[in-house]
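Letters spell out the chain; backbone shape is given numerically. Take this protein:
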Amino acid sequence: MKDTVSPNHTSLPRTSATRTLAIAGVFTAVAVVGSFLSVPVAGSKCAPVQHMVNILSAVILGPGWSVGIAFCASLIRNLLGIGSLMAFPGSMVGALCCGLVFKFSKNLPFTCLAEALGTGILGGIAAYPVARFLMGAAPAGLFIYVIPFLISTVAGSILAYVLIRLFQKSGIFSMIQSGN
């Protein structure tokens, strides 16, 4: 049995379970620590690392793992007091969208676009009921979170695209996928 992540991400060989879990743990840690990296852009806080991790994990591990990593990173950030409930809809919807697009298309630009649209538009809309009903806030409208979410996710998508292309050129990407 080969120690590889299957290309269709539907099942992982048993010998790769520990390696897969370790990669997921590293991605979760990068997302949590990366939340301290933010840049003010147009009156919004641009925090691109979670979105970069969403794409990396979707491409390397698949959609289920990507959503799980987004959930764990959001939960840890909230437990540490460095995140808000808004982290859940944005990161998890984006992770699912880019994971499914990559699973079925294997197209990196479409995957990055799916992360940006999934987090920016769908996650931004999904954040409205979270703010209104769970946080007791009175957001100005259904689309109020779309622009701030888009700013972060577009930056993260660009970072992920560049990083994956660099990993592909250097051979690191195939080494990660083959398990060597």
